[in-house]
Amino acid sequence: MTDLEAWERQLQDNLAELRRDSQQLADKAATVRGRGEVRGVLVEVDASGDITTLQIAPGAMQWTSKQLTTVLLDCHRKARADVKARIRRLVSKADPRLRNQLQHIRSTSTTAEQKRHQRPMTAQEAQDADDEYFAKRNLYGGWTDG
User: Fold this and answer.
1) From edge to edge, which strands make up the β-sheet containing 51-56?
2) Is 100 helix (H, G, I), strand (E, B) or coil?
3) Using only C-alpha atoms, what is the Rg of the chain?
């Protein structure tokens, strides 16, 4: 057996281990829930921040719509913060190779989110962005698929 064959086998074993660890992490993350509860109102969210459970005590139904809205939004914020913390704890225990990639993805998405909240583009910036897009499009095959 050559060194190349041994290297390929080791590479395949490492890849299989990463896939297995990644699937286990994804399965665990899918079960994570965050909760926020205020004055008889409970909101539970999944790892994406989507509401999975909403419970409103009968007494809360007597509140004004503004009061109920405020409490619901507060509960949702708390539930999202809770699930975020739980996911961070889960990721902190993950394989370092996965953890590093997840941190890279998170920092990249944070940067994109920050850019979205910047000032609107000027007309010249928009024109420059369009020109760059079309130049890349033409460079990589143009406009036809065939």
Assistant:
1) 34-38, 41-45, 51-56
2) helix
3) 24
Q: Who wins on pLDDT, 112 or 59?
A: 59
The residue type at 2: T
Angle, CA 32 vertex, CA 75 and CA 86 arms, to 5°: 75
The full DSSP string for 54-91 is EEE-GGGGGS-HHHHHHHHHHHHHHHHHHHHHHHHHHH
Q: What b/e sequence results for 87-105 when a residue is b if at least 16 CB atoms lie within 10 Å of its CB, and e otherwise?
A: beeebeebeeebeeebeee
Side-chain-side CA neighbours of 139 within 13 Å: the count stands at 6
Contact 71, 39 (CB under 8 A): yes
- What does pLDDT average to over the chain? 87
What's residue 111's pLDDT?
A: 63
61 pLDDT more than 50 = yes
Output the pLDDT for position 146: 44
**Could you tell me where the DSSP H helices lie in the chain?**
3-31, 65-92, 96-116, 123-139
Half-sphere exposure of 100 (CA within 13 A, CB side): 4
Residue 83 CB coordination number (10 Å): 24
Decide if 44 contacts 56 (C-beta within 8 A).
no
